[in-house]
Amino acid sequence: MSSITQYKTKAGKTFYRVQYTIGVDPLTGKKKRTQKRGLKTQREAKLFLAKQMVDIDKHGFAENQKVKYQDVYDYFMKSYKSTVKESTLNRVQGLFKYHILPLLGNKSIKKITIPMCQEMVNKWSVDLVDFRKVVSYAGMVFKEAKRLRIIYDNPMELVVLPKDKAERHKLSDDKFWDRNELNLFLRKSYETYHGRNNKAVTLFRLLAFTGARKGEILALQISDFDYTDRTLLINKTVTRAIDNKQKIGTPKTIGGYRTLGLDKTTADMLNNWINELHRKLKFLGIETSDDEQLIFPNTKNKLLSLMKPNKWMQHIIDTCNKHRDSDSKLKRITPHGIRHTWATIALESKKMTLKQVQQQLGDSDINVVLNTYAHVTKQTSKETIDSFTAYLKPKKK
Questions:
Q1: What is the mean pLDDT of the chain?
Q2: Phi/psi of residue 230, each to 5°?
Q3: Which of 80, 95, 82, 86 is nearest to 250 (CA)?
Q4: Would you say residue 13 lies in a domain?
Q5: Residue 379 lies in a domain
Q6: Number of structural domains, the chain?
Q7: Which family, according to UniProt (predicted)?
Q8: pTM, to two decimals
Q9: What are the C-alpha distances in Å from 196 to residues 209, 264, 342?
């Protein structure tokens, strides 16, 4: 809102005063006004005001120059955090903390240009596998600034995204084991922990024979296991809350809800461990129902640390490699690598379709499987067409 008023000095001279808004705090809505005095004619006052309005129309309020990217991010997070799960919020805030805010946080959001964003995107594309997500989240803050009319264009929408190379999604050979390596690990796991840590032995057996995620296994309750039907219900997972503490949450996508079949040996091992767990809890005087009782709790009958299986696994690998020659050593992978191992072996075996592998893994998008395990699916596809060609070929008389 603006105005032009006439006033007189003590000496009796007539001048014009222009008052207009130079800023609106986009985060509070409060207006800041200023004035220009000493204009000699009404025409001069109107010309001055028109010039200021055009400048504001083109470049926004002068006060908005002081709004930093960090300010808009803080405002954006107040509403964003109520729209996602805590685990997602934790991950997104991590992306901002380590990749986005260090580069943009202290900059005036109006002064961040397209070339500046392009340079950052190019860097992210080299450093990060899933750089497109970082670009998307960074753009959300600009979108919020645009909604608040701090800026008129979102520079992240105008960058050229580097081509997403297919090999970025391929699983490198050092992230999973082959069939012989997996068998070696399971055997060494049994030799190392049987009788003194059957919890670890059973946990690794489940990871290896179901392809489930570590968090899904650690969230299992006794009621999720049906020994008669040999099935395991996956309907939750261990995640991290906003304070980084562990908690049980729901699967990220609808595909995460699934029922997994178990082979007899795995079902027997799991049943034996549950019976042992019951005995241990009874000895400690702990009474819980099967609906609430975790299958793999810690020593205080709470959620087992997500890092505990990693430590058990590294100990087994160290033990296995201690007295073996270089040709027999196990690669150092993580529990998530066992999931990759299951998927790779399942595809190589040709006993399961791509769709069945996707459903077993709980991935919502079959393209995730296609891209991640491209090295296996290509070979399987080639062998399938070779088999078809051989079958179709006329038999010699």
A1: 86
A2: 55, 55
A3: 86
A4: yes
A5: no
A6: 3
A7: Belongs to the 'phage' integrase family.
A8: 0.68
A9: 22, 23, 26
